[in-house]
Write a structure and sequence with these properties.
This protein has about 425 residues and is α/β, with parallel strands linked by helices. It is built from 18 helices and eleven strands. The strands form three sheets. The chain has a seven-stranded mixed β-sheet, with helices on both faces. β8 and β9 form a beta hairpin. α6 packs across α8 and α6 packs across α18.
């Protein structure tokens, strides 16, 4: 009995002492936690902050974050909650059936909870049609809408029952796809394509533990996009050659980006995943088109695998129509700092690519911005801007906002006007 007590005492002391030793000497280097964490620096001590409780309040998270083996303790805690209660310790992630990870925004998109309204979507479709015709006729530029697949649409059977209590309604994805087709707008609907292949594909198109299409699925879609552009541009384009396909028993690259931010002890089991080994022909002299992507993060797989640089002469990408890539040495530019017409005019193709139909705003503001620039008649947005300019007090507010955001006054003025216009469209959509 004495030996048992001594052993237990030793274990308790080790649990108490080892973290302190690790904090002082760092004799073990644990794997860092994934995801974003609020910085918690050591606060400056003062008698006033101690008396007010501010010092203790800010010191507590600092001590927690710097405790020895903090990363290991977090993973143990997260694994326990995940295994026994299906609780994810990561923002915006839902644990679906069979531990398939869903994003709450993808679930909302599938159920139609984020539907922007018919009046709003009809306006965007009409503007896209105008831009398609204008760019083709005036500049010889092809405008193409690409709808990337949404995980909620692809795996609706995995959505927990508590999210299905309210009846599924009209979705931005379905309404946009139908409206774009009816209006003769150039469209590739990869969401519909994935659903059509779901029961027949021998390889995983959408990973169990990732938020984006699988590397295999992305490669198929890239090939399909290139073939579409070949037909539309009436010429051959370089194709990414796949030397071989490699099957792995784990998710690689970005196919487990949701799993990683859960910070678990063990990876979530996944079915066999298929990955390409590319063979790009450096001697291929085929003329590559200049393409501007206005896209969400579904673009990055094509960028990271080399498909973009080996297919297109320019890999310009405006991330959510906010950040310009490739980024200059000083960091990404804001699209408001780039000349819209000059950036578009040097392209052969402009591609608007979003999952879940951009949650009702394909192009994430690009459509409104380009339409207001190229449409020479009076528009509601231009009327709002004119009213602002006629009001000195409002213009003073705009100048202050521009200075705070380090943006041109005209850009801030336009953003406010578009916000007011779209807000009214969404309000009117409720009565449509």
């Amino acid at each position: 009995m004495t030996r048992i007590k001594s052993t237990l005492l030793f274990i308790v002391l080790a649990v108490l002492v080892f973290p302190a030793l690790q904090k002082c000497f760092h004799f073990i280097t644990p794997a860092p936690l994934e995801g974003y964490f609020q910085p918690s620096p050591r606060p400056d001590f003062s008698l006033a902050s101690l008396c007010s409780g501010e010092f203790q309040q800010t010191m507590s998270p600092h001590i927690e974050r710097t405790t020895g083996f903090h990363e290991n303790f977090v993973r143990i805690f997260n694994q326990a909650d995940f295994t026994f209660f299906s609780i994810p310790h990561a923002a915006k992630i839902i644990i679906g059936k069979n531990n398939l990870l869903q994003a709450d925004s993808h679930v909302d998109a599938y159920l139609g909870r984020d539907f922007a309204g018919k009046r709003f979507l009809d306006d965007k479709i009409e503007r896209i049609r105008y831009l398609q015709d204008y760019l083709r006729q005036e500049k010889g530029i092809l405008l193409l809408v690409v709808l990337a697949p949404g995980k909620g649409f692809y795996y609706p059977e995995s959505i927990p029952a508590r999210y299905l209590e309210r009846k599924k309604s009209t979705t931005n994805q379905d309404y946009f796809a139908s409206g774009l087709e009816k209006n003769g707008i150039n469209l590739i609907d990869f969401n519909r394509w994935f659903l059509g292949m779901k029961d027949t594909s021998r390889h995983v198109l959408y990973p169990k533990t990732g938020i984006h299409w699988s590397t295999f699925g992305a490669t198929l879609c890239a090939d399909s996009l290139i073939r579409y552009l070949e037909s539309a541009l009436h010429r051959r384009l370089p194709h990414p050659g796949v030397e071989k396909w490699v099957t792995m028993q784990r998710a690689d690259k970005e196919d487990d980006d949701m799993d990683r931010v859960l910070n678990l002890l063990w990876k979530i089991p996944v079915p066999p995943m298929t990955y390409p080994v590319f063979r790009f022909n450096a001697a291929d002299t085929t003329r590559k088109p200049a393409v501007l992507f206005i896209s969400d993060s579904f673009y990055w797989n094509w960028q990271h695998t080399g498909i973009i640089r080996n297919t297109f002469s320019r890999g310009d990408m405006w991330y959510y129509d906010k950040e310009v890539y490739p980024a200059p040495a000083g960091g990404p530019l804001n699209t408001a700092e780039v000349g819209l017409d000059s950036a578009i005019s040097r392209q052969e193709v402009v591609i608007l690519m979003q999952t879940n139909a951009g949650y009702g705003n394909i192009g994430y503001g690009f459509v409104d911005r380009a339409y207001e620039y190229y449409y020479r008649g009076m528009t509601p947005v231009k009327r709002i801007e004119a009213n602002y300019r006629a009001n000195p007090a409002l213009m003073d507010i705009m100048r202050k906002k521009a200075a705070d955001q380090h943006l041109p006054v005209e850009s801030v003025l336009y953003t406010d006007a578009v916000f007011l216009y779209n807000t009214e469209l969404k309000r009117l959509s409720k009565y449509n």
